From TrEMBL:
Domain (Aminotransferase class V): residue spans on this chain: 21-389
Source organism per UniProt: Kutzneria buriramensis
Domain of life: Bacteria
InterPro entries: Aminotrans_V_dom (IPR000192), Cys_dSase-rel (IPR011340), PyrdxlP-dep_Trfase (IPR015424), PyrdxlP-dep_Trfase_major (IPR015421), PyrdxlP-dep_Trfase_small (IPR015422)
Entries under Pfam families matching the protein: Aminotran_5 (PF00266)
Name of this protein: Cysteine desulfurase family protein (TIGR01976 family)
Amino acid sequence: MTYDVSRIRAAYPALADGHAYLDGAAGTQVPTAVIDAIADAYRTGIGNTGGAFAASRRSDAIVAECRAAVADLVGGQAEGVVLGPNMTTLTYRVAATLAKNWGPGDEVLLTRLDHDANVRPWVQAAERAGATVRWADVDTKTGELDVEQYRQLVTERTRLVAVTAASNVLGTKPDVAAISGIAHEAGALVYVDGVHATPHGPIDVTALGADFYATSAYKWSGPHIGAVIADPALLETLRPDKLASSDDTVPDRFEWGTPAFADLAGVTAAVEHLAGLDDEATGTRRERLLTSMAAVEAHEQGLLRRMLDGLRGVTLYGDAADRTATVYFNVPGRTPEQVAQHLASRQVNVWNGHNYAWEVTAALGIRDGGSAVRAGAVHYNDTDDVDRLLAALLEITQM
């Protein structure tokens, strides 16, 4: 395994501004290859799909290549990759479609750990259908999502289990495979929010047991495009609302309106970039992705240990055994906004607030007080970024 973070950082023009970008959990910077792919699509000429002329055929190819790239990233099938503007929009679309078959007595099981984009669409869809919402609770001390509770919560009336593959604030990585196994035994579908998990290590949707897996390219150095990956055979059974005149094939029937073709070219470039993060990665693109993302995970875990070892004078939330390189904390006597502003004055980029982790910040008892500060490492961060965070925090804790 060869992971040259200096080489990787050099591919990102934005990193030259001298800031420590520890805000990747809200969206990453993009490498030159992605910028060029988007620009080249416009320079070359694109048209809407399905036409007889060359520009239209280029768009057809861009869409097909994007589906194949996303499938390689997560271990899915290209024919089951639904593309859209973002994960939230797509989740609302899937929720509305599935809920057509729900009614009184049916149950939907959610978690207090999830980003609200994997909560509110299901809550609202269940309300419209007359279905019941049940909740899996998070351990507020450890940030863990106990699997055993699912053995009591999942029943023969459970129609859907929605769960995150990684918390976007605590970093917790639940045992999704075990949860999926319990859900499938009862005949329920499993919708996995992989937005925060995908950038931080290898993903295999089959191993996770995900019937639907959602991800967002802008969290892994791509443009603002979302995707939901499912088995094409499952998608064939679903009838989303759509225009009468639009394509009824899978996965097209789930995609509304004209896509952002140039951005889709950027998604493919981002996947190719990820596949080359480990200098020694070889084989198919899927194989190179597995090697490179394993190297990313090892690199980030080293940064996480450095952060945790160096954090002093803060209240840290979550201590899961398996987690991404994401820390969520408060500084006693300071509001989260004050801490973030101080860090910004030292050119250290972090987020403050609930970060759409609406349920877990309430469970932690911090939502009404501004929640907390979030810092997180992605593949282009280095030890200098972490050390600058720790130094700036030391300043404010001693003020």
